[in-house]
Amino acid sequence: MSVIASTSRPVLNVLRLNRFPILFQLNLEEALLRGTKDNWFIVNDGAFQPAIVMGISGKPEELINVKEAANAGIQVIKRFTGGGTVVVDSNTLFTSLIMQGSDVPHVPCFPQQIMKFTEYVYGGIFDEYGEFHLRENDYVFGERKFGGNAQAITGQRWLHHTSLLWDFDQKNMDLLKHPKKKPKYREERPHNDFVTRLCDHVPSRTRLLDELLDGVPYLVEQLVAQKMGGKEEEEESRAKELAAREGGVEQAIGDFEGRGFEIREASLAEAAMALQKRSSSGNKEVDLTAHLDAAELQAL
């Protein structure tokens, strides 16, 4: 990835992580969102260990088979963003966009507009591999989910992070309950009929990681740098397709006339400086034993 030399444009920092612990990643993302005005794109190639990650309002007894999860000794985390519950492990790929609203002025700081913006961005990566759509808050091929999304918005800053299922371990998936609140498009499908593995669609994991690291920053930069419906017929066609399917995407994306980004590779040490400015975190580990009765505790 080349670094553009201009210093007059906003910077999009690109950080690549490998098997970074998911709790540490969440703490880092929150610190970058709340404690800086910088723009970041983060890719983490797999979690260090399996974990169940709930949204900020998640309740273990409603979302997790608590006894089985406690017996498995799996880490359970409540994150600072909303969204659903996911099981992650070394075969989960994580991406995060953390943006200063003034640097993407044509993307209003509202959930659906941000979601539609990211649909365009990630469509540039995944259209090649299947019938890519944003369905409610999920990325899907056809009717099967491969990516879950969650967001946080604070003032004029926003974060959009995604967990991508390269592959998954069924026994870990079985630790989750069938949620009461679920996407309408899921209907009553069991988990195996609802999700799909990216490894069944993409030739190699390395290829996908390279495409994410190079393609997402480029697509963000292009969307901000040039006018939609002008120079690039392919981008115009994509925007119109999304507008017809979902409605309002052109307003969400805007005309993107004006500034682009300087794209630069960043180090973990640079990103971690934000942690020094944050004394508290909205992420925490959940003690499952607090959700077991005496007999279940004895059986552990």
From TrEMBL:
Pfam families, A to Z: LplA-B_cat (PF21948)
Superkingdom, taxonomy of origin: Eukaryota
Protein name: BPL/LPL catalytic domain-containing protein
InterPro entries, sorted: aa-tRNA-synth_II/BPL/LPL (IPR045864), BPL_LPL_catalytic (IPR004143), Lipoate-ligase_2_inactive (IPR053264)
BPL/LPL catalytic domain sequence ranges: 33-210
Gene3D superfamilies per the UniProt record, alphabetical: Bira Bifunctional Protein, Domain 2 (3.30.930.10)
PANTHER family tied to this protein: BIOTIN/LIPOATE A/B PROTEIN LIGASE FAMILY, BPL_LPL CATALYTIC DOMAIN-CONTAINING PROTEIN
